[in-house]
Amino acid sequence: MAYFVKGGFIHDIDIGVSTRYLISNKKEPRGAFKNGNFMKNIFGGISLFFKEVFFELKRVNWLSRKQLVQYTIVVIGLSAFMAAFLGVLDAGFVYGLTHYIVK
Q1: Average confidence (pLDDT) over 51-63
Q2: 98 confidence band (pLDDT: 50, 70, 90)
Q3: Are residues 53 and 66 in the same domain?
Q4: Residues 11-37: what's their mean pLDDT?
Q5: Are residues 18 and 39 in the same domain?
Q6: 3-state helix, strand, coil in the chain (%, to 5)
């Protein structure tokens, strides 16, 4: 992995991701009250969060419509099968308990 630092960001060259880090080791105030400007830091942080989310969403490999439909059918089918299987198992246990154990 190759990294370089530019303007308070550490850039990962291999995957093209920029992550903001505090570079210095100084004991500076952290959080929203840094420099006494609460609103600027809060909205700046929220803005940075949504910019990074938007950047990550552009990099996602989305499924095609055909794959999405196929996987949805598989999930619904397996869920229905497991529900029926567990229902039959439950009914068998209830029958066994009521007729053979509890008289």
Answers
A1: 90
A2: very high
A3: no
A4: 51
A5: yes
A6: 60, 10, 30
Number of domains in the chain: 2
pLDDT of amino acid 101: 85
Q: How much is the pTM?
A: 0.48
Q: Are 23 and 8 in contact (CB under 8 A)?
A: yes
Among residues 41, 52, 53, which one has the least CA distance to residue 19? 52
Provide the pLDDT for residue 90: 97
Judgement on whether residues 78 and 51 belong to the same structural domain of the protein: no
Q: Are residues 92 and 48 in the same domain?
A: no
Please tell me the distance from the alpha carbon of residue 41 to that of residue 1, in angstroms, as a whole number. 31
The whole-angstrom separation of Cα 3 and Cα 8 is: 13
Q: Are residues 55 and 7 located together in one domain of the fold?
A: yes
